[in-house]
Design a protein that fits this description.
Blueprint (H helix, E strand, L loop, with lengths): L8 E6 L11 H9 L4 E7 L5 H14 L3 E6 L2 H14 L7 E5 L11 H21 L6 E4 L3 E5 L3 H12 L3 E5 L14 E2 L4 E2 H14 L3 E4 L2 E9 L2 E8 L14 H5 L6 E2 L8 E2 L2 E2 L11 E2 L5 H4 L8 H5 L12 E7 L1 E4 L3 E3 L13 E3 H8 L18 E8 L13 H15 L4 E6 L9 H9 L3 E4 L6 E6 L2 E8 L2 E7 L1 E6 L1 E3 L3 H8 L26 E3 L9 H21 L1 E4 L4 E3 L9 H5 L5 E7 L14 H6 L1 E7 L9 H5 L5 E3 L4 H12 L2
């Protein structure tokens, strides 16, 4: 008979096909483990993560009375949750499980089979010693506020908000600009189908504005987010439009009457068109409400606009209100979807900024658009171009930005094709390095366009220069080892997708990390592509990485579904592997507060445990009253991620982490140091 507190361990060594077995003698490792103290059963199996492998563990737990499990296989990031669930289904506490990584940390990094096998034995031995010291833990349930927040009103944010709202979830959509729509609203057509961009987008924009479960906050910015999954407290600044949204009919009389009419560069038109100080970004804007540019309006910057503001005089509904102030809106949400989009790279070379005929792809997009500054006619410097040269990878795949922007190859094809439609006798040359047509229908679209325009390959690291000779542009490039020159009326730069200027501020507010390129970092690139490091915060669209409209929409829907799960369940379970404080040792120095990356630790005043009886002594002196209280650290279980930074930094050793306490770690380290 087994004793009540007897440790009974089951060890399972995975072949992982040949991923592990090709380098590690898994049978020898299993045999080695079987001889260790407390090990009741040790087996090797081809695929432990398969259904038969999982059933084997369940059967052994019941048959042999196992109360600790070790699986030697791949990274815990891949299958730790899988095997914890197996333990739980067999009636074993899931935190009495340990995974030894003998794939990524052993078989994949070694070629010597004998040495790799010995290392695998050491890793398994360490896992066995650690699992023997593990203790059962319980997850904590947290109630979830039945409301979601979507930050960003581009195509990804729009689809995320609609997906959430259509599931019956109250959703707040916050957009920084006066209108939702994002960059997609600036496009003429979309590849590869050449659908009108706004024809696709506008119905969804209107649906957002009319949806009974969506609260739309445009011209607004998220200032702070505090709390944790299930209960994020959000503070939003709704900037003053100086126009009453309830009264404005969008008639446009104010903009036409403005003294600064057509004198301010339009952001929506990429600086190619002009607008008034009171404006609407584009005709299909949602909401269809005008906004006054506080940085340029004469009434706001100078205190007067002629005898009286013309916009006030002509407005038929008295919607102009210069007394408006920014409004602070505070609310709580259960989950958050971040869809803040991207910026377009601003070139500093290829003659951009020096020659008017050198333009970016977004500027060309506005020139081709029927609602653009030229009414859809491609007119640059007063004339229609006949010789057009595209330069790919401007700002991408460089030392500063080593990534591919993914959309450039395809929008070059689209724009080249549309140029040939609008200017049939135009000669279009595309200077490219690689054509990456990876999506559905993309390769077919490339073959179609390649027959219409001239594709010339060049090496990415070869120099390319844009100069002016005799009033015309000349592009000099090394193509296939030869110096070549291309005459051009305009040069179009296929500029990179880059993180937004405010990405760092958003990351700080939400406490989510960014990758080396500045985009928001996913929890796992394959298994958790829309999750972030913060539970309850999800990312979608180009704020996470460059992607096209199709992928942005797909990821937005995925993020919305993930965000809806905790809300629809009503509560979430929080991992118990968090830090805890021994109040008897803590001196309240606050070191832990300064090192915690998640804001999970605070210092509070608590009553001395041996002074509680003292409260009834009414004759106590004031000095004794002061000594009754002490400063100690306190950990918010829901915010804590169990990273251990506080425990490592604590000078008094008052902080430990459940599941990673000193006894458990020392047992593992000692086992690794054994010969």
């Amino acid at each position: 008979m087994k004793e009540k507190n007897e440790v009974r361990i089951g060890v399972y060594v995975c072949h992982c096909g040949t991923n592990i077995a090709a380098t590690v003698d898994v049978e020898e490792v299993a045999e080695f483990a079987s001889k260790m103290k407390n090990v009741v059963v040790s087996r090797a199996y081809r695929y432990m993560c398969s259904e038969p492998g999982q059933e084997m563990i369940k059967k052994d737990i019941r048959e042999f009375g196992l109360n600790r499990i070790v699986v030697a296989s791949c990274s815990p990031r891949m299958h730790e949750q899988t095997f914890r669930r197996v333990c739980e289904e067999a009636g074993l506490n899931p935190y009495c499980y340990e995974q030894a990584n003998i794939r990524e940390q052993c078989s994949w990094v070694h070629t010597d089979r004998k040495k790799a096998t010995e290392k695998a034995k050491a890793l398994v031995r360490a896992a066995i010693e650690r699992v023997a010291a593990l203790e059962p833990l319980s997850r904590k349930k947290v109630r979830v506020v039945p409301r979601a927040l979507v930050i960003g009103g581009g195509v990804a944010g729009i689809y995320a908000a609609l997906e959430l709202a259509n599931k019956g979830i109250e959703t707040v959509l916050v957009e920084k600009e006066p209108s939702i729509g994002g960059h997609m609203a600036q496009l003429d057509k979309t590849f590869p189908t050449l659908d009108c961009s706004l024809c696709i987008l506008t119905p969804k924009m209107v649906e957002v504005s009319r949806h009974p479960r969506i609260k739309l906050l445009t011209y607004s910015e998220v200032e702070s987010v505090e709390g944790f999954i299930g209960n994020f407290k959000v503070r939003v600044r709704k900037k003053a439009r100086f126009v009453d949204e309830a009264k404005c009919t969008g008639c446009g009389l104010c903009s036409e009457a403005c003294r600064l009419r057509d004198r301010i560069p339009s952001e929506f038109e990429a600086g190619l068109g002009k607008r008034s100080a009171i404006y609407i970004p584009f005709p299909q804007a949602v909401p269809s409400v005008y906004v006054i540019d506080a940085d340029n309006c004469l009434m706001i910057t100078k205190g007067k606009c002629g005898k009286s503001p013309r916009c006030v005089e002509v407005c038929p509904t008295d919607a102009i209100d210069f007394s408006q102030k920014d409004e602070i809106i505070e609310f709580s949400v259960g989950t958050i979807v971040v869809a803040t989009g991207f910026d377009v790279y601003k070139p500093h070379d290829y003659g951009y900024g020096r020659f008017e005929e050198v333009i970016t792809s977004l500027e060309l997009e506005r020139l081709m658009n029927a609602s653009g500054p030229t009414g859809g006619k491609i007119i640059v410097n007063g004339r229609e171009p006949k010789r057009i040269v595209f330069i790919s990878c401007v700002g991408s795949r460089s030392e500063e930005r080593p990534y591919c922007s993914r959309i450039c190859c395809m929008y070059i094809m689209k724009q080249a094709h549309l140029i040939k439609e609008k200017i049939p006798d135009a000669h279009v040359t595309v200077l490219y390095t690689d054509v990456r047509a990876y999506g559905k229908g993309y390769e077919e679209f490339y073959e179609r366009v390649r027959a219409e325009v001239n594709y010339v390959r060049r090496e990415l690291d070869e120099p390319i220069e844009v100069i002016k000779q005799n009033g015309s542009l000349v592009v000099r490039a090394v193509c296939e080892g030869k110096q070549r020159e291309f005459q051009a009326d305009i040069v179009v730069l296929a500029t990179a997708v880059v993180p937004r200027r405010d990405a760092d501020e958003i990351a700080r507010i939400l406490k989510i990390p960014r990758d080396a390129n500045g985009f928001f970092l996913e929890a796992h690139p394959k298994l958790r592509p829309v999750d972030t490091a913060i539970d309850g915060v999800f990312s979608a669209g180009c704020c996470q990485s460059p992607k096209d409209i199709q992928d942005s929409v797909a990821q937005a829907v995925g993020a919305a579904i993930k965000a809806s799960v905790p809300i629809l369940r009503g509560s979430v379970e929080v991992e118990p592997t968090v830090a805890f404080v021994d109040e008897n040792i803590c001196v309240g120095c606050g070191t832990c507060v300064s090192v915690c990356p998640f804001g999970a630790v605070s210092v509070e005043q608590v009553e001395h445990s041996d002074m509680r009886a003292w409260v009834s002594n009414k004759a106590a002196k004031s000095s004794e009253w002061r000594e009754r209280w002490k400063r100690v650290a306190s950990v918010n279980d829901v915010l804590c991620k169990g990273c251990g930074s506080c425990a490592a930094a604590c000078p008094s050793g008052a902080i430990s982490v459940f599941h990673f306490n000193e006894r458990q770690l020392i047992a593992q380290i000692d086992a690794l140091s054994e010969e």
